[in-house]
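Exercise 7. Predict the structure of RNA polymerase sigma factor from Aquimarina celericrescens.
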Amino acid sequence: MLKEEKDLLKELALGNKKVIQKLYTLVFPKIKNYVLKNNGGSVDAEDIFQKALLQLIARYKTRSFTIESSIEAYVFGACRNLWLRELKIKSRIVTKDEIVALVSEEDNMTMAILEQEKRELFQEKLHDLSDNCKQLLELFFQKVPYKVIAEKLGYNSDNVVRQRIHNCKSQLTKLIKNDPRYKKIKDV
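Solution. The predicted structure, encoded as tokens:
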């Protein structure tokens, strides 16, 4: 993280209105556009943006962390993840016959922070893999068929691709489980 990014994060946590306005100017239009394109409205976008800023501030105040990209990219990613989570919750809207346990806003925020930490750990460990494994797993996560992966990367068959993907997933799992943060996240 660049020094200026650290300063922005610190100033955001201190409630610096200029930093908050800068983030609104740079990031909010992208968030609003994303939410509007994904079954939401302007009010939803505002709520998600506020939650993401609160999440960022809460994380900064409770434990140090590093933003690997720009703060704008981080806030956008956090907003996207929060919105996807919100859509998932909304998709579970109940009929008259069902009973729903509503989660308090604080619990919801805690879960969102935890999910963000999990995603960050996953991305960091994915980055630690060999270029070949990263390429294979990225194609796999994009649901590219094995046959297409074999052709694209020059493997003899889709069975070889399956085996390589399995090995790469095993390496990724091992890297994640060997990280001390995994134990903390897993136990929550």
